[in-house]
Amino acid sequence: MKKILNNLSKVISTKTLSEIAKKRLKRDLETIRERIQKNEYESSGIVFNTFDVPDKTQQFLSHLKTYSEIGNTWALILNSLPVHEYKNVLDLCPGFTPKIELALFYIKFKGEVTILDNEQESINRVTDFSKLIRPEFKITSYRHNLFTTSKKKFPFIIGNHIIDDLILFYFMGKNHLRLKDLYEKEHILIKTWERIYKNKKQNLQEISDKLTQIFINLVSNDGYLCLSQYRSYLEKMLNLDQAFLFTKKVCSKIENNLLKNGFTKIPINDMGHNCYFNSTDVIVLKK
């Protein structure tokens, strides 16, 4: 083992690496370190063969199946709501994959879907991915930081598993830290949540009030706000139980705040065992 590590060090020292190559190498080495610490090599390795087409296809299909399951779950929810009566649906902070767009495709929505995100790369990825399925709806974009003032309002807003990301985005920005480091370096993600826990009572109040005001300003009169927050794969893998519980408390506080500010709760029936998340993981409110 020592000989292998010495040889690796020599090879790295003799190569001129681009910045993207250095970034990927550093990420791989950090992954190896994390796996050693967690004894994950006892169960499996992380070697990927670029030419192993069946394996790569299986990985791709596994991700696609997850997106589809989330989309189908949202399709079930949306079919119980008058979404077709609205000309525009806002997909709030979707990340890089079109879960909501798949849902709207499944229910044959024919209006306009606006993708709102702070990152242009995220908007581009979701837009490009969505176009592959040739939806009947029109796709537009709105690059915007939710924690800054917006004059735009939307009649039907959907946010899939966004509250935890908004919590992190807010507190990372408040402490002048780079958000992109969070998901590239898992120890930074863990430490960020630990800092939030240390003053959780004040932080819970602060972020809940911020997000409440954002939703009040963003939803137009007679409009809908639909949010989901379920235990994610990342939270399970990194044992972020406290993060999940904190996020659920934020969701409950936002819901109670909005009910006190002119919103009405729309009940969602139990969706069965074949859904990606449960009706208890969903908040649907009408302004």
Q: Would you give an account of this structure?
A:
The protein is α/β, with parallel strands linked by helices and 287 residues long. It folds into 2 domains: 2-42; 53-286, Rossmann fold. 53% of the residues lie in helices and 14% in strands. It has 11 helices and 7 strands. It has helices at 2-14, 19-37, 53-78, 99-106, 120-132, 163-174, 180-184, 186-198, 200-218, 233-237, 241-259, and strands spanning 88-92, 112-117, 138-143, 154-160, 219-228, 264-265, 282-286. Strands 3-2-1-4-5-7-6 form a 7-stranded mixed β-sheet, with helices on both faces. Helix 4 (99-106) links the parallel strand 1 (88-92) and strand 2. The longest helix is centred in the first third of the chain and has 26 residues, at 53-78.
Topology (SSEs and partners):
Layout: H1 2-14, H2 19-37, H3 53-78, E1 88-92, H4 99-106, E2 112-117, H5 120-132, E3 138-143, E4 154-160, H6 163-174, H7 180-184, H8 186-198, H9 200-218, E5 219-228, H10 233-237, H11 241-259, E6 264-265, E7 282-286
Parallel strand pairs: 1-2, 1-4, 2-3, 4-5
Antiparallel strand pairs: 5-7, 6-7
The fraction of residues in strands falls at 5-15%
Span between termini: 63 Å
CATH superfamily of the largest domain: Vaccinia Virus protein VP39
Give me the Rg, rounded. 21 Å
Question: What number is the mean pLDDT?
Answer: 90
| CATH class designation of the largest domain | Alpha Beta
What would a concise description of this structure say?
The protein is of the alpha/beta class and 287 residues long. Helices cover 53% and strands 14% of the residues. Helix 3 (53-78) crosses helix 4 (99-106) and helix 9 packs across helix 11.
